[in-house]
Amino acid sequence: MYVDLGNALSSVASPGVSRASLERLDEDVAAAHERIERGRANDEHGYAALNLPETADPDAITATVEPVADAEALVIVGIGGSALGAATLADALDSDVETHVLDNVDPEHTNDLLEGLPLADTAINVVSRSGTTAETLANFLVVREAFEDAGVDWTERTVVTTGEAGPLRDLADTHDLPVLKVPDGVPGRFSVLSTVGLAAAAIRGDDVEALLAGGRDVARNLSGSLFESPAYAYGATTYALDNRGASINAMLPYAEGLETYAEWYAQLWAESLGKDGLGQTPVRALGATDQHSQLQLYRAGPRNTMVTFVRPRERADRTIPETDVEGLSYLGDATLGELLDAEFEATEASLAAAGRPNVRVELDRVDERGLGQLLYGMEAACVLAGELHGVDTFVQPAVEWGKNAARGLLGAEGEYPEADAVEDKEQLLVE
Ligand SMILES: O=P(O)(O)OC[C@H]1O[C@](O)(CO)[C@@H](O)[C@@H]1O
């Protein structure tokens, strides 16, 4: 993982950060690193996630999913951190296993998905750390029923990833299903390099060991200085720019296979740093596509946005055929990859020319090792940014109100006063 901060400097951009300020900030990075290392050493909640490249057990994961290793199709049933990591790997890595992620409760989508699946050759990986998330459990009950209706034994096709206890754990025990435990102290959004993200990867035949090795590559560089650690360089710079007005961070990967990575990043950044009235708003984008939709705003709108450019240094390529069409011959001499890189560098430069802050993040290739580096790197960057902002990076209390209101509206057992507030909604309907 390579991070270039050049276009975030105040000599280029406003908001921007000066080298001198980064050097001063490095003292706080050193103190934060000490705190993070202490948290890792004691396997404290949250910090333990940064130990996963060492603590995850690829052999145990592969052995547990073995009963469904013959699958032609896979349905990952989960939501948030229990889906986005596996979805990111499935989007970025090739596999013969047709992979679907059921991370919403849209009946039309679920019906279409189930109708098209070869259920007898389909594996189900149902993932929920708490084991109580309504969307995940509802989708799983629907998927299970579809298998039963098709006369396929779902207990033969299901692998569960969940915590020590809870309804999903009970269901797995009742039906003696293969279970992978979600590691203690690892919040969902930091769990891609654990059983949560790696079970599906193992079923798909991805190189789980290489993913973890990528994580170790970046973990090795974590030190008390942002000038020695790409992950900390990124985390510290987003913090510095946020403090100077860049309250929005547009994540712009230049690889179709990294589109879901931008979604994964959005949860990591939003749920970790969005608290106490603070937090940089992540925006999901895709390069070069969103140059033609969002760039106008980032280049000429309010000076409240930084852009994070991500690209692989190497990729497969395809030549653009020669053409005699007037004015297009320049394309005929290039490849799609060269065009994409030109768009990347030109868009970076266009923001710098307009004095708009941006950071470049590169990985060697979009493969298991590169992804392990990128995902772990962004997790470490987020943990550092949380330390510098002084927020509790590893909790997300604000999401519970809505869950309780939904439970109340559906008549779940227990008291859910939040549901009353839904009923009492202020109305000013225009139709
Ligand atoms: O893994 P679980 O417990 O089903 O939770 C799914 C997701 O829901 C959240 O709790 C937010 O509602 C996320 O933090 C988490 O990743």
UniProtKB/TrEMBL annotation:
EC number: 5.3.1.9
Name of a matching Pfam family: PGI
GO cellular component entries: cytosol
GO term, biological process aspect, one: gluconeogenesis
Xref: InterPro entries: G6P_Isomerase (IPR001672), Phosphoglucose_isomerase_CS (IPR018189), SIS_dom_sf (IPR046348), SIS_PGI_1 (IPR035476), SIS_PGI_2 (IPR035482)
Similarity section: Belongs to the GPI family.
Name of the protein described by the UniProt record: Probable glucose-6-phosphate isomerase
